[in-house]
Amino acid sequence: MEDTLLYKIESELKSIHMRRHQLLFVVSESFNRDISFIAKQIGIPNINLNYELSKVLKNLPAKKRHRNVSNSLKQIVRERNSTILVIDHIEILYDPQLQQDPVALLEDISRNYTLIVSWRGKTNGENLVYADQDHVEYYKRDKTDGVILSQ
Question: How far is CA 53 from the centre of its chain?
Fold first, then answer.
């Protein structure tokens, strides 16, 4: 299964530079582990977003955190000194207190960087869903400019 996924990703990476947003979502409800193996296989940096973004935001007052998410995320990506990145563990972006649109944030960054993003949720090929509808972190995006790959 990992070999098939890796093949799909490598195939998409060959032409993704021609897209407005160089964004690739790897979707699965039940990842057995993170997708850092992709970063290792391709030889690119991996970002555990929950860890990296929480390190930055924890020093800010709770009421100011939502205003710093975008810039902090861009800084985290820039610090990796790579044009292609794997981003895993993005659940912090769904935190209602941060008031963010996770896909919009990633699309914005993907204009300048190629992002391979782990999406622990559902898709029907066109939309992305995270959590159940009655969950506080529920998020649904009907259209994305990114490429969606189901695992």
Answer: 12
Give me 36's structure tokens. Answer: 């850092």
DSSP character at residue 27: E
User: What 8-state DSSP symbol labels residue 51?
Assistant: H
67 CB-side CA count, 13 A: 5
End-to-end Cα distance, the chain: 8
Burial of 8 (0-12, 13-18, 19+ CB in 10 A): middle
Beta-ladder partners of 87: 47, 117
- The pLDDT tens digits along the chain (151 residues) read 577 888 888 899 898 988 889 999 999 876 666 688 888 988 999 999 999 999 999 999 999 999 999 999 999 999 999 999 999 999 999 999 999 999 999 999 999 999 999 998 899 878 999 998 999 999 999 988 899 988 6
pTM for the model stands at 0.92
Which residues on adjacent β-strands are paired with residue 84?
A: 114
